[in-house]
Structures are given as C-alpha cells and as structure tokens.
Amino acid sequence: MKVAPSLLSCNFMKLEDEINAIEDAGADYLHFDVMDGMFVPNLSFAFPILQQIRAHTNMTIDTHLMVQKPERYIQSFADAGSDIITVHVEATEHIHRALQLIRDTGKKVGITLNPGTPIEVLIPVLHMVDLVLVMTVNPGFGGQSFIQECLSKIEFLNEYRDEHQLSYEIEVDGGVNNVSAQYCIDSGADVLVAGSYFFKHDDYSIPVRVLKGE
Ligand SMILES: O=C(CO)[C@@H](O)[C@H](O)COP(=O)(O)O
Ligand SMILES: [Fe+2]
C-alpha cells in the first residue's frame, strides 16, 4: 500500500518543513490538487508552487488536475515537474487524446472520475493508463465525507486489471481516514490519498502506518 498526502491540507506557511516531514514519515507520493474554479467550484495552486516543490524533493509528484480541458496544460505540468498527471474523464470531450498527450511527455498517465460517473466509461481507455484514481468525494474540497458507494469501482478495477492483464495502480481520493482506509484496502486499492486525516497528526509516521494497514 502506498500513501499520498494531499498538500491541500498542509500548512503552507511551512511548506518546506511539511514536505521534509512527509518524506521522513515514509509517504510515497505527494498529491498535488489543481483546481480551476470551473471544473470544480474552488481554486487552488499550480505552476510556481509545483516548480518550487520539484526543486526541493525527489518524491513522486502525483498531480490531480481538476481542470476543464486539461489538455491545454499537460505539457506545462510535465515541464513544471509532475511525475504522474491525472485528468478527469468528465473534463474533456477528447479523453483519448488527453491521455496520449500525457504519454508523449514521458510522464505517468492517470485517469479519474467523479463519484456520479459510472466506472464503465473508462473501459475504452484503461489499457492506456498507469493509474486510475477513484474519487470518493465530489472533487473541489478537502475534509469531506467518504462516499461508500464508490468502493464497488475499486473492486471492478481490480477484477478488470486481472482479467485483461493490465498493470495500472488503483488510487483512492477523498475522505480517507483510519476507518475508510480499511474498506479501500479490502476492496483492492494500491494508493491512498489523504488530506485532512493525514495533516491533523503531529507525527506523520502515524497516518502513514495506519493507512498502510501496518
Ligand atoms: O482531490 C481532492 C479534493 O478535490 C483531494 O485530494 C482532497 O484534498 C483530499 O482531502 P481529504 O478528503 O482527504 O481531506
Ligand atoms: Fe486529489
């Protein structure tokens, strides 16, 4: 199990210390949530912060683009230092092209979907991706409650991966805490994103251990 703290909930006044502490605690990815105020009703951060984080750490930067027509920005996120670039299937009319654009940058290719979107929508492109992010809240904000009904999507992705000999990672994002993490682990998740639950601890090795099921 991998753990990906969502920087949305960190203390930005101490960003450098936060990143060092996340790394020392044994987390695997830095989850970087980009919001455009159009695809989701909130704004977050983008290139200048990403570039500075990239200059500071070798951790895998897992970029979650909650952005309308993300193909406009894929090259820029690759250049700014993302390692994984994940786009929403609902955010573009041309998901196949968007995924191909990510592949062409040499970065890892991620796809994601909102809680209200059926998982079957992803079938035509699952062979193209390195990571599938299952949203377990409606994107746009940290600190929301886990939507249990999304667990069946994790199970589906697991079975589909086995049946078709694919190798994407299954990542879960939204409302992940000590309780919901266990449901995700049981359903077959590989990576857990956690924001509010992770950063409420003083010692980040605790949520890392709990989320890894140790
Ligand atoms: O993408 C998003 C929200 O849109 C997430 O990555 C959140 O930032 C996770 O925060 P918690 O639900 O864990 O507090
Ligand atoms: Fe996210």
Summarize the structure.
This protein has helices at residues 15-24, 47-56, 74-80, 95-105, 151-163, 178-187, 196-199, 205-211; strands spanning 2-5, 29-35, 60-66, 84-88, 108-113, 131-135, 169-173, 191-194. By secondary structure, it is of the alpha/beta class.
Question: What keyword list fits this structure?
Answer:
TIM Barrel, 214 residues, globular, alpha/beta, 34% helix, binds fe (ii) ion, eight-stranded parallel beta sheet, 8 helices, binds 5-O-phosphono-D-xylulose
Please describe what this structure looks like.
This protein has 214 residues and is an alpha/beta fold. The chain has one domain (2-211): Aldolase class I (TIM Barrel, Alpha-Beta Barrel). Helices cover 34% and strands 20% of the residues. It contains 8 helices and 8 strands; from the N terminus they run βαβαβαβαββαβαβαα. The protein starts with a strand and ends with a helix. The model has no long low-confidence stretch (mean pLDDT 98). Residues 6, 31, 33, 64, 173, 193 line the site of fe (ii) ion (FE2).
Hetero groups bound? Answer: 5-O-phosphono-D-xylulose, fe (ii) ion
Backbone shape: globular
Helical percentage: 25-40%
At CATH level 2, the architecture is: Alpha-Beta Barrel
For the terminal residues, how far apart are their CA atoms? 10 Å
Mean pLDDT: 98
Spatial order of the strands in the main sheet? Answer: 1-8-7-6-5-4-3-2
The CATH superfamily appears as Aldolase class I
Strand content: 15-25%
Q: Give the ordered list of helices and strands.
A: EHEHEHEHEEHEHEHH
- Biggest beta sheet attributes: 8 strands, parallel
The number of distinct β-strands equals 8
Uncertain stretches:
none
CATH topology value: TIM Barrel
In terms of structural class, how would the helical and strand content be classed? Answer: alpha/beta
CATH class: Alpha Beta
Number of helices: 8
Function: Catalyzes the reversible epimerization of D-ribulose 5-phosphate to D-xylulose 5-phosphate.
GO molecular function, one term: D-ribulose-phosphate 3-epimerase activity
Family: Belongs to the ribulose-phosphate 3-epimerase family.
InterPro entries: Aldolase_TIM, Ribul_P_3_epim, Ribul_P_3_epim-like, RibuloseP-bd_barrel
